[in-house]
Amino acid sequence: MSDKINLVDFFGNEPKSVAVKKDIPPCQQIAQAVFKAQMDTKFTHLCNRDKTLARHKAMEIFYDEIGDELDEFVECYAAGYDEIDLCIKEPCKVIDTPVAYFQNLYDFIESVRGGMSEQFLQSLCDNIQTEIKHCIYRLKYIRT
Question: Which is nearest to 62 in space by CA: 122, 138, 11, 123?
């Protein structure tokens, strides 16, 4: 496993393997990744370049619902570890192929979450991954 990940690479539009940073706690990597995804999703929702209502609504729902999950995850982590770095250096971008994008996000979280020992954080991570899979479902099967 590589010791570095470029978030731009993993948030790309094609499925690919992901790697974790060994020097950043898993919870922090997950929080940063989900925060970046939330920003990209909002940006995509507002730009809505393909003009489909289904994608527009899927982005809106994900952006709105992931916020509560992310807040709870970060707050519970910070309660035990004092602080968390949510700094994302990459700019927001329009998601061109959202199913691949969200599958990459899901796979990344799956690869990192094993480093968390606390069961309650694992449970909160489950909730985040549930929102991602629900978004993938909307993108793949809801057409308007």
Answer: 138
User: Tokens standing for 126?
Assistant: 């489950």
Per-residue pLDDT in tens (0 to 9) along the chain, 144 residues: 333 334 444 455 544 444 555 678 899 999 999 999 999 999 888 887 667 888 888 999 999 999 999 999 999 998 888 777 778 878 888 898 999 999 999 999 999 999 888 999 999 999 999 999 999 999 999 987
Those residues whose C-beta lies under 8 Å from the C-beta of residue 39, and which sit 6 or more positions away, are: 88, 92
Measured in residues, the chain has a length of 144
pTM: 0.83
